[in-house]
Design brief:
3-stranded antiparallel β-sheet, 2 domains, elongated, 39% helix, NE0471 N-terminal domain-like
């Protein structure tokens, strides 16, 4: 298959995806709320705190003021950070890849202060700490 044909097929596939999912029509950083706001073609607005988005977690407000929308409307780019977010994945993985989100959830779980967790930590400490994992053999 010639390169041109592959290019045309990719363009048609992109058009089908764009027609089947809402795409960004505008995006901005709202300093008053500290949130990135994306206006979708479906008239739904999506907003989030930058600290919850992969690649934006340490951004300063001045780095978030300029936001570009990709030609397909499926991606947004933050030029001052050289960070990109793909909207379908943004919604699917809640602002980052599944792996990144899993690491964030693990951190939250690790900070849990339940009575059961404190009791288990105390009991493990009396026995010399967390039990070693059994070697597979």
């Amino acid at each position: 298959m010639a390169g041109y044909d592959k290019f045309e097929m990719a363009n048609r596939r992109g058009e089908r995806v764009r027609a089947s999912v809402p795409h960004a029509v505008a995006a901005q950083y709202d300093r008053a709320t500290g949130r990135v706001v994306i206006h979708l073609s479906s008239r739904l607005d999506v907003s989030f705190l930058p600290r919850d988005a992969q690649g934006l977690e340490n951004a300063r407000p001045s780095q978030l003021e300029e936001i570009e929308i990709s030609p397909s409307g499926l991606g947004i780019h933050f030029p001052k950070l050289d960070a990109d977010l793909y909207l379908p994945s943004l919604v699917e993985g809640f602002l980052g890849s599944r792996r990144w989100m899993a690491s964030r959830l693990g951190r939250v779980g690790g900070r849990s202060r339940s009575a059961d967790k404190r009791a288990a930590a105390k009991a493990n400490g009396r026995m010399g700490g967390r039990p070693k994992k059994a070697a597979r053999g």
